[in-house]
Design goal:
It holds the Pfam family DUF1163. Keywords: Membrane, Transmembrane, Transmembrane helix. The protein has 170 residues and is of the alpha+beta class. The chain has helices at residues 13-53, 109-116; strands at 58-70, 75-84, 101-103, 118-121, 124-128, 137-142, 145-149, 156-160, 165-169. The chain folds into 2 domains: 1-54; 55-169. Strands 1, 2, 3, 4, 5, 6, 7, 8 and 9 form a 9-stranded antiparallel beta sheet that branches. The chain starts with 12 loop residues before the first helix and ends with a strand.
Length: 170
């Protein structure tokens, strides 16, 4: 009687199959959870990198151009450029202190004015960058803009067509 407690219980092949199925189900569930956690981590990393590389775009809703004086070697103009900065650009991205520079290069501008009554140009912006671990400036390149001169005038032009969008250049 005392030795009956030490003897192992009989395990039938049916019991072994049940144990094996339970073990495989648990192992499968663990594998699915591990795979899901790894994929979730990859997706979070992708979202973080996308947010880290995000820089808002700038639009130019209005451009006015007035020719003040024309000589053979010089052209004096006045540009009125309305630049729309997104609300999230100043502060985190762009410092409000520092220089704001706009570059517009144009060759033979008066020939285009006389021939077609309009000028097309591209522009670039350099804004002070206040983010840590970045270059001190943010460079933007803008879509081509078109200025059309008023009928009968070669002195005053306004923006025409689609508003240019300026994108951050890495």
């Amino acid at each position: 009687m005392g030795n009956e407690e030490l003897a192992p219980e009989n395990t039938s092949p049916c019991d072994v199959k049940k144990l094996l199925i339970v073990f495989l189900v648990i192992a499968g569930m663990v594998a699915i959870v591990v795979f899901g956690v790894v994929e979730l981590d990859k997706e979070v990393d992708r979202i973080y990198k996308k947010a880290e590389n995000y820089v808002p775009e700038i639009t130019i809703p209005s451009t006015d151009f007035n020719v003040l004086n024309v000589t053979e070697s010089r052209l004096d103009v006045k540009w009125d450029l309305l630049i729309r900065l997104p609300s999230d650009l100043p502060g985190y991205y762009m410092c409000l202190k520092g220089d704001f520079q706009v570059f517009m290069l144009y060759k033979d501008i008066m020939e285009d004015v006389k021939q077609s009554g309009e000028i097309r140009f591209g522009s670039r912006f350099i804004l002070p960058d206040c983010r840590k671990w970045t270059k001190p400036n943010m460079n933007y390149t803008c879509d081509e803009a078109t200025l059309r001169f008023e009928p009968g005038s070669q002195r005053k032009a306004i923006s025409f067509g689609k508003q240019p969008t300026c994108r951050y250049v890495r």
